[in-house]
Design goal:
Elements lengths: L6 H13 L14 H8 L5 H19 L8 H16 L1 H12 L7 H18 L31 H4 L2 H24 L3 H6 L12 H24 L6 E10 L4 H6 L1 H16 L5 E3 L9 E4 L9 H10 L24 H19 L2 E11 L4 E10 L5 E6 L39 E9 L5 E12 L6 H4 L14 E6 L9 H16 L3 E5 L5 E3 L5 E3 L16 E9 L5 H5 L2 H30 L1
Parallel strand pairs: 1-2, 2-4, 3-4, 8-9, 9-10
Antiparallel strand pairs: 1-13, 4-5, 5-6, 7-8, 10-11, 11-12
Helix pairs in contact: 1-2, 1-3, 2-5, 2-8, 3-4, 3-5, 5-6, 6-8, 6-18, 8-10, 8-16, 12-14
């Protein structure tokens, strides 16, 4: 075993990577971790080599799967990619440690202990370091965590198993996949060829326990039972037809998004004008693609605004008397004929008049929100709803910010951390405090003719908020919160990652949010992948209608107009929350307490013996 002790862990790393994008071999997820599990009971291996092997496997998987981070920025390539990979790799030796501890309880089946340990650590990772809800009780809660690359995410295309997410979230799907991996391990270690391949000692033979054999049957029952449940959830009447929504996606490269505001506005303004021809009820821009800020005054007057905010204030309102509005003078060197027509229209008329003239629909803008209190500006990553007449409606300020991308953790205490941010010269964003519910009044056509007024409610998830398990479910009526939503909107700026597999993986994770909340999820993403996901997790519309291949829907421009498929069902996960990882952590704690009591009993009885 000494010469090839690292092979099982590395093999699992490669297999697990293939289960995610870019390969997306989801079925491999059911067997990928079986080689790694041989490290739990293999004999003749020193502690240092055993845990180093586990760490090497974790590092290999993290470096492969997080490869897309290097495309965003040089600082991401040299620091964020290896740094995040190092962080994620630590969960593999930690999982091995917990598994070996629990294995002292008479070697319980790995089909039971592996899903318990792995799901518990997935929850830990998804909320690290301060995103755990119980921290609200002591005032230390701050939305954080990395809820990517769960075992359950390998099954995003398995519609039958995906439906289990409305029972226990992605964690329950991960538990089912983990149980299958443990059962596969229990079967494979009885195959001599497998033992030779992972280089188990020649004299080592797996003990045959009736409990292990029963655990294999149990894992099959769990996976089969959840898929049967999924089949029943897929049997329902057709979804009701909701409002007509246009989702905008451009092919604009991220470097131009960052540096050429007039071009960015003109491209999306053109798409919005095209969408307006189909008379939608709502037009959705991607995150941060509206290059003007939304300035709001907090207990002060416009006279206190600095010059940098004064021009933006005037651009969103009627020009102030005796003062010229924002012009295109600064952009004459980049003038390209009609390319900036929309920008010139906007700065001439202001936000309200431009929207009322050219868009003529409720329009959800992704932009920077700024609150001015007379002395300081507080920035947010925001979504602003404009009414058809251009007047501003509610604004949602993103609550779950991305560290180093949107803010720098401990900036005042550790200023050297600014060097790791691509936006080190910016003051950073402040998280919002509430989940805004937007109302959308429409006129519904009646079968017998005529129309009637209908109002819809929707919630917004900005950027990676659709990868956070505890946000989307709060819009379901069973969550107990006021004003549940009829549908969800995700606006994102994935062009940071320049067409890499990040786009597909982000969309795959979004499918779980739709099922957990039992609400359709509409995505508007710069360069893609925009999509419409129904309450069953199906992808019902992509920008490229000629092929279902997701990669073909990247880097194409389209105003995608669809009728929202409304799902009215409740969700147990929305009502109960993260009961699956809570049970897993309870099981681990119970196992450790049992071991502790058994050790104490041995210490007490030893002198008597």
């Amino acid at each position: 075993m000494k010469s090839r002790v690292f092979l099982p862990s590395i093999l699992s790393a490669v297999l697990l990577w293939t289960a995610f994008f870019p390969l997306n071999w989801g079925a491999v997820g059911f067997v990928a971790m079986a080689p790694f599990l041989t490290l739990v009971r293999a004999e003749g291996v020193g502690r240092w080599r055993r845990y180093t092997a586990a760490w090497v496997g974790g590092m290999a998987f993290a470096m492969l799967s997080m490869n897309w981070m290097r495309h965003a920025h040089p600082m991401m390539m040299y620091f964020a990619w290896p740094g995040m990979s190092l962080f994620l790799s630590l969960f593999w030796p930690l999982a091995l440690f917990l598994l070996r501890r629990l294995d002292r309880l008479g070697q319980p089946p790995l089909a039971l202990t592996f899903p318990v340990v792995w799901v518990a650590l997935e929850y830990f990772k998804a909320h690290f370091p301060a995103g755990y809800p119980f921290l609200k009780w002591v005032g230390l809660y701050q939305p954080s965590g990395f809820a990517w690359y769960m075992l359950g995410h390998t099954q995003h295309a398995n519609l039958y198993l995906l439906q289990a997410a409305d029972l226990g979230g992605a964690y329950l799907v991960s538990a089912a996949v983990g149980a299958a991996n443990g059962a596969v391990h229990d079967v494979l270690v009885r195959v001599p060829l497998f033992r030779w391949f992972v280089n188990l000692p020649r004299g080592w033979r797996p003990p045959i326990y009736r409990a292990e054999l029963m655990s294999v049957a149990g894992a099959l029952l769990v996976v089969g039972g959840l898929m049967t449940y999924g089949g029943t959830r897929l049997l329902h009447p057709p979804f009701d037809t909701g409002p007509k929504v246009s989702l905008l996606q451009s092919d604009l490269d991220h470097d131009l998004v960052q540096t050429d505001g007039p071009l960015l506005f003109s491209r999306y303004d053109q798409l919005a004008r095209e969408a307006a021809r189909s008379k939608p009820d709502l037009i959705v821009w991607p995150e941060s693609c509206f290059p003007f800020w939304d300035v709001r005054l907090k207990g002060t007057s416009p006279a206190t605004l600095p010059d940098s905010l004064q021009e933006l204030w005037e651009a969103q309102n009627l020009p102030a008397p005796n003062k010229q509005p924002l012009t295109v003078a600064d952009f004459k060197t980049n003038y390209r004929g009609n390319e900036y027509r929309g920008f010139r229209d906007y700065v001439s008329a202001g936000r309200q008049a431009h929207a009322a003239t050219h868009w003529q629909a409720h329009t959800l803008l992704g932009l920077n929100g700024v609150d001015w209190d007379g002395t300081a500006e507080i920035r947010h990553n925001s979504a602003l709803l404009l009414k058809p007449d251009g007047t501003p409606g509610p604004r949602y300020d993103k609550t779950h910010l991305v560290p180093f991308g949107e803010y720098i953790p401990f900036r005042n205490q550790l200023p050297f951390l600014e060097a790791f941010s691509p936006n080190k010269d910016e003051p950073g964003c402040v998280p919002g405090e509430t989940l805004t519910r937007f109302t959308l009044p429409t006129l519904q056509r009646l079968p017998q003719g005529g129309t009637k007024a209908v109002g819809y409610t929707f919630g917004v998830l900005i950027c990676y908020e659709d990868t956070e398990p505890n946000l989307a479910r709060r819009y379901n009526p069973w969550s107990g919160e006021k004003n549940p939503a009829d549908f969800l909107v995700n606006m994102s700026m994935d062009s940071w990652f320049r067409g890499s597999e990040e786009h597909e993986q982000h969309l795959a994770i979004s499918r779980f949010r739709a099922v957990e909340a039992r609400r359709p999820l509409l995505r508007a993403v710069n360069i893609g992948i925009s999509a419409v996901i129904d309450g069953d997790g199906r992808i019902v519309e992509l920008p490229n209608v000629e092929t279902p291949d997701w990669s073909a829907s990247k880097k194409i421009a389209r105003a995608m107009t669809v009728d929202v498929p409304l799902d009215r069902r409740g969700s147990i996960y929305a009502a109960v929350g993260d009961w699956v990882p809570v049970l897993c952590w309870g099981g681990i704690a119970g196992g450790f307490v049992t071991l502790r009591l058994a050790r104490r009993k041995r210490v007490i009885t030893a002198p008597a013996a």
